[in-house]
Write a structure and sequence with these properties.
With 285 residues, the chain is of the alpha/beta class. It is 41% helix and 16% strand.
Length: 285
């Protein structure tokens, strides 16, 4: 793979470049101390891997990663930092790794495995927008690296519940009881749900990803094949997703605790844990 390394600390940059050039997986590696220089260079020199320091003047590594993903959403990103406190913000960009300095040969070799997995994953069709769904910690959605803003919290929660169900259809009544728990699904409440569904559809359409949501005969579902979701990757046993999980799943929603418990049991005992829950509360008999 072709790589770029960006670090305003020249000694650190030389260390990273030297290690990269020793790796058989790396065909070429170029180094830069300024973000604007690497962006200009990449306009005519495509790369598969960007190794970025986070704390830099002018443009930090997080902003640079977003710009690189705008140019090429398929680029694997590996963050280097002397500061562990940036990790949460870094993982929201969906890098292949976050490594505390100093970088060693053994650690780089390990990270190149994850970068290769990223590069070999099924890609989207030409012109299709990349939809990243983050469920570990808080729930968020990113389109081509940009965060989707929801004008209604219940619309965002509805999408979160549909993601949790992994493409299983949900009736409108089921959706209502997840969003409002014990309240009766009356005619006035149906109208409120209609507003939430319309708002969700409008938000998705504004971001040109309306096709991730399907409505059919009074039911709703997301199309899992159109989402790059950390939870789905964990269920497939992908090691980078397992490493990303830090014990919290959709933290803002109480109904997500069942799935969080399932993830914990799956990680402790990968075999024989049964299927994931659907996020629905249990109806009283």
């Amino acid at each position: 793979m072709r790589a770029v390394c960006v670090d305003d600390d020249r000694l650190s940059l030389q260390n990273t470049l030297g290690l990269c050039r020793q790796m058989p997986q790396v065909q070429s590696a170029e180094g830069f101390t300024r973000a604007r220089d690497v962006l200009k260079w990449m306009e005519s020199n495509p790369v598969e891997l960007a190794i970025l320091d986070i704390h830099m003047p002018e443009m930090d590594g997080l902003a640079l990663a977003r710009r690189i993903r705008e140019q090429n959403p398929e680029t694997a990103i590996l963050f280097l930092s002397a500061h562990p406190q940036y990790a949460a913000d870094a993982w929201a960009i969906h890098p292949t790794g976050y490594v505390l300095k100093p970088l060693t040969e053994a650690r780089l070799a390990e990270e190149l495995v994850y970068a290769a997995q990223w590069l070999s994953r099924p890609g989207q069709k030409p012109g299709e927008r990349r939809v990243e769904v983050k469920t570990f910690g808080n729930f968020d959605v990113f389109v081509d690296g940009g965060k989707v803003r929801f004008s209604r919290t219940k619309a965002k929660e509805l999408l979160a519940c549909l993601v949790d169900r992994r493409g299983i259809r949900m009736t409108r009544a089921e959706a209502f009881h997840v969003l409002w728990d014990e309240e009766e699904y009356s005619r006035p409440k149906q109208k409120i749900l209609d507003v939430i569904i319309r708002n969700l559809r409008a938000t998705l359409e504004e971001n040109r990803i309306g096709d991730v949501l399907e409505l059919e005969q009074g039911t709703l579902r997301v199309v899992p094949e159109k989402l790059h979701c950390d939870y789905y990757r964990l269920l497939r046993g992908e090691e980078d997703a397992i490493r990303e999980y830090q014990g919290e799943y959709m933290s803002a929603y109480t109904w997500a605790s069942g799935t969080e418990g399932y993830i914990e049991s799956r990680l402790r005992n990968p075999i024989g844990t049964g299927g994931p829950p659907t996020g629905l509360r249990q109806e009283s008999k």
